[in-house]
Structures are given as structure tokens and as C-alpha cells.
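User: Show me an example of a complex going from sequences to C-alpha cells.

Assistant: Sure. Here are the input components:
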Amino acid sequence: MMIDRKFLVGIIVFGSLWGFAECILGSVLRDVNLPAGAIMTGVFAVGLMTLSRTTFARPGMQTGIGLIAGGLRLFNPFGGCFICSAIAIMAEGLLFDLIWTGFSLDKKTTQTLTNQVSLGITSAYLVYVGGYIITQILTPVFSSAGFYLENLIVFIPQILASGLLAALLGVITIPAVFASRKLHFTIQDRLYYPISIGISAFCWVFVIANTLIILGL
Amino acid sequence: MGKDRLLPILALILLFIASSSSVYVYATQTTMETLEINNQEYTIDQVFSIVRPRTSNDSQYTGIALDDLMIKTGVTSPETHTYTLRGVDGYEKTVTWENMQNGLLTKNRESIFSDLPKAFRIKDIVTIEVK
């Protein structure tokens, strides 16, 4: 089987950028008591995944991006529940992939502004709420306390409400990504690998170094 | 109906769900100064005066021992029960007696468990239900 190196490097660089944003910017947003989860999903997660999807137009990529970003989040044990965040990020990548594949959005569906705005609301809201619910199930499952369905059910209204901000941010994010595509910004083939690998390495080194500094090692 | 027409309808439905949930959450918001433990009401000062203190493993948090709190508030055979801690916003988590033995309640009514992820940190706890 031939492995598409450009595709794999794309997964790594987009995943690293998302993970970096979650670890560094997400922590800052939490420190100043802003709704970091909704902002990170509505802007960075949906933005980077839309950019990657419209660039490569291949299903499966966002699941990989989520795995890389969630993996990087595990190296930054600060700013809220990092296990929950990592699970949510991985789930968000998978959900985005499923939504875009389910709606066949790699075709002509996204050309009008109405559809781009609708897609922003749908993607951001379902990705955020879905990720939130999945992490509320999986985090207790992997802990010694266990999962209790009633704990989730009573909190469903709050989860559904908290997705509103992500949905509203998605209204801006996805049309902005589609607008940026019209600039036809491309990277030359000979520069693609060095730039991508350099950006990815910077994200990982920065997050790990930041963790070690905070831990005082 | 084509998917391009379905998308705006779905977006409107999701916005309606999110907005109505926000209204519901806002309308049902409560504030409570007391702590209900096993169907009995206490003030935070009361429980802090009767329960032994505990510090988290990393010495970052201090408060009172959750297992001692259950015993002092009259829970019998505590190891046979599970405990549901509920915050003022409705967020709740159920934990075992072993978890309670590693848990503490801060003066700000937040639960800290050294053996559980941060998802089990419940803020502004208003109820501890014994099941």
C-alpha cells in the first residue's frame, strides 16, 4: 500500500497546531475565566479542520488530526482536566470527519454563504456538544469511580446550552476559512516538508518545554 | 430534499435547541448557602468545625476529609454506599467510598480527589447524596 506522505505530514502539522493552541492559548483563556472549550472548538478546532478538509478533501484526515492534537494535550497537564480535554479533542476530530462525510461536504454543497454559515453552526455545535458528551462518558469509565448515566442525563441541558457560543463562533470561522481559500495561498512542493515539519516540531518542543519549566524540572 | 437545503434547516434546529437550553438553565439557576448531606442541611462552617482537615497530595489544596465528613454526619456502613456530589450548576459525579477516602472538600465547597481526574472537581457543591 502506498502511503501518501504529503497527507500524513498534513495530519501532523494541523494536529500539532491545534494541540499547541489548546495547550498554550487554551490555558490562558481558562486562567482569565473565559469559556475556553467553546472558543477553542468554535475557532481553532473547526477552523483548522475546515482548512485541512478543504485543502486535502479526504475523509479520515480530521480523525488523525484530532488524535495528534489530543496526544499533544496529554503532554500539558495544566489548565483544567487534561485527560478530559484530550478525549474531547480526539472525539471532536472524529465527529467533524463524520459530519463532513455524512453531508458529502467535499462536493458542491458549501459554495453559498448560507450553506457556509449553516455548516459553521452545525459543525461547531455538534462537534462541541458531541465531544463534551463523549468525554463525560469516557473520563469516568477510565477512572476508578466508574460511569453513572444519571450524572450525564441531569447535566445534558447545561451541555446543550454551552454549545451555543461554539455555534455562534462557527458562523464566523467557516466562512472566513472559505474566504481565505480564495487567496489561493500555496506552498511550493520543495518547501512543504521543511515548513510543515518545522512548525510541528516547534509546537511539540514548545509545549513539552513549557510543561518541564512549570514543573520545575 | 437535497443536503444543501437540509443544512440550513438543521442549523436552525440546533440554534433553537441551544437557545432554549440556555433559557432553561438560566431559569432554573439557584443559589444555596447551605450544604445538604444525606438529606440534612449544614453550613460550611459547621462541617469545617466537626470534620478533620486534609491536604491534597501535592499540598496545593486544603480542606476537610470527605470520608470523615460522611462518618461525622451519620452515614453508617459507608463502604457499602456510593456518593453523588452535585454542584449548584447541576454538574454531578458519583464516586465510591475508596474515592471519598482520597477526597477533600475545600472552604469554597469544591471537591478534590487525588485518585480521580479533574472532571471530578465539582465547584460550589450544594448536595452530597448517599446512595
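The lines above are the inputs; the final block is the predicted structure for all two components together. Chain A touches chain B through 40 residues (CB under 8 Å).
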